[in-house]
Amino acid sequence: MEAATTHHQAEPPARKRVLDLLARATRTDMETVFNALVTKPNHERLRGPETGLVMVRGRMGGGGAAFNLGEATVTRATIRFTDGTVGHSYRLGTDKRAAELAAIFDALWQQDSTHQLVEDKLLKPVEEKLSAEQTKRAAQTAATKVEFFTMVRGED
Amino acid sequence: MYVAVKGGETAIANAHRLLADRRRGDRNLPAITIEQLIEQLGLGVDRVMAEASLFDRSLAALALKQSRGDMIEAIFLLRAYRTTLPRFGTSKPVETGSMQVERRVSATYKDLPGGQLLGPTFDYTHRLLDPSLLEDGMVDQAVERPGTPDHVMRVSDILDGEGLIEPDGEMPEDHVAGDLTREPMEFPMQRDLRLQALARGDEGFLLALAYSTQRGYGRTHPFVGEIRMGLVEVELEVPELGFTVSLGEIRVTECQMVNQFKGSAKAPPQFTRGYGLVFGQSERKAMAMSLVDRALRADEFGEDRLAPAQDEEFVISHCDNVQATGFVEHLKLPHYVDFQAELDLVRRMRARHAAEMNRDIDKEAAE
Fold first, then answer.
1. How do beta strands A43-59 and A86-92 pair?
2. Which of A8, B71, B182, B352 sits in a 20 to 30 Å window from B102, CA-based?
3. Which GO terms describe its molecular function (chain B) (predicted)?
């Protein structure tokens, strides 16, 4: 049931998770997996890799109307395999090679023959690494939480 | 009159070579790397990003290295770079309420959901120079306290429950957020454009204005409702995919200033708010921004505009340090012809002045 509805826009498609993770994978993460591929895919560049800007918005008061906070560099790429599979990537920063690799892995993830490999060798390790980093940051922050105590003065 | 003058090419080329030499400094010392700047002078890198209005730590660090640590020069370099890039789109507004919080303090509530999280702060240090940093000694790892972190509730939501505080700040439904980088400035200005200008404004200028409001020039009776710093997601709607992609996280600092307001014919007594949001870890700037944001909202609350910090055109027109430095520093460029003309004028005025003086003396003598 769930799988049949994934192409609808109402809920985030499974591919969103893939693109989100690939945006956070380091170039080294991707190069390592790519270099270990037994057969390298042939791809043509449909767009980019190219660097541009995204205007980042904030909200006045934190939750109110939008305003333009400032821009961020973003690099994107779109590639196509000879069988017609198209891969996209968008990521913060200016690393064009990383953007191209991410688009290749997006396409590899869509193909039956390489889907599981991308999941196991790249997406899951990246997910685990991000989760570990987040947990560590939270634990470091938690250690700086103030524990107030009350000084009792006089007799009562 | 405009006279083109040529010459100076060799001097300029040699000056730039000398600049590169001085930038490198003593060749016996290792050259500083971009990674070192990002890791060890991170707050300087953050300031360059914030005031350049471009989030990219590597490029900001490169700019800082190229400018020999001159902040405004680095900001200028980054601003110039951004003009060479196309714009892919506009992100969804970042949700600071769901920030991965690295610091959160409130000066209005001691015990609030999520607690007081000090994070990596200079507060409560003794401001004594630390000679141990002269050596490249071992530094202890940060302490960790494992466990599921509590949800860090926004302070403005607490007061909002009682209706004692104004809401977040709305614009008309069909309003599209203005963009200073695309449209020329016009006054009076809407709050969204002012916030964009303040977010990229000079920290020193905004700090001084914020300070002036505390000292009585447009008093706003502020309390820090909350300061939070941490990571927020940048999400972009991608048409070719038909869904929103999360591009990564950026670090921002947010300040919710809560201000006392005695009420007016328009509104009952309540707390009003000023808002600050800045790229990177930059608490001083976020606080200054929120104070100036509130001061500039004088008209909304029927307050008299008497102080510099309340003067929208004055504040917004002068808070951009790249514009400011451009106009101030252009004075050092050759003005030979202008000055020759002025010199000639002053000579003639003096001659006339002297003639008039002599005539008066002669007249007095005759009488």
1. unpaired
2. B71
3. lyase activity
Do B54 and B110 lie in a common domain?
no
Residue A143 has pLDDT above 60, yes or no: yes
Determine, yes or no, domain membership for B302: yes
Q: Report helix, strand or coil for A153.
A: coil
CA atoms of A136 and B146, how far apart (whole Å):
8
What is the mean pLDDT of the segment spanning A55-72?
96
Assigned domain for B37 exists: yes
Min Cα distance A100 → chain B (Å) is 15
What is the distance between the alpha carbons of residues B339 and B189, in angstroms, rounded to a whole number?
A: 38
N- to C-terminal Cα distance for chain B? 47
Q: Cα–Cα distances in Å, from A112 out to A107, A115, A119, B275, B343? A: 10, 5, 11, 50, 82
Total tally of structural domains belonging to chain B: 2
Residue ending a domain, among B52, B82, B112, is B82
B231 lies in some domain: yes
What pLDDT band is residue B33 in, cutting at 50, 70 and 90?
Answer: very high
- B166 and B60 within one domain: no
B42 lies in the same domain as B112? no
Report residue B106: phi and psi, to 5°. -130, 135
Residue A147 distance to chain B (closest CA, Å): 8
In a domain, B331, yes or no: no
Q: Please name which of B107, B314, B298, B109 lies closest in space to residue B205, comparing C-alpha atoms.
A: B314
B44 with B109, same domain: the answer is no
Same domain, yes or no, for B204 and B69? no
Mean pLDDT (whole number) for B15-32 = 97
| Cβ-based neighbours of B110, under 8 Å, separated by 6 or more | A148, B116
Q: Does B161 share its domain with B270? A: yes
A54: chain B residues, CB-CB within 8 Å: 87-91, 234, 236, 247
CB B259 within 8 A of CB B288: no
Query: With an 8 Å Cβ cutoff, are B54 and A63 in contact?
Result: no
Helix or strand run (H / E) with residue A86: strand A86-92
What is the domain extent for residue B64?
A: 9-82
**Amino acid identity, position B225:** G
Tell me what percent of the residues of chain A surpass a pLDDT of 70.
90
What is the average pLDDT across B213-232? Answer: 93
Q: How far is CA B278 from CA A36, B212, B286, in A?
A: 42, 21, 6
The reply to whether residue A20 touches residue B193, judged by beta carbons under 8 angstroms, is: no
Q: Is the pLDDT of residue B108 over 70?
A: yes
Pair B61, B118 in one domain:
no
ipTM computed for the complex: 0.91
Shared domain for B74 and B207, answered yes or no, is no
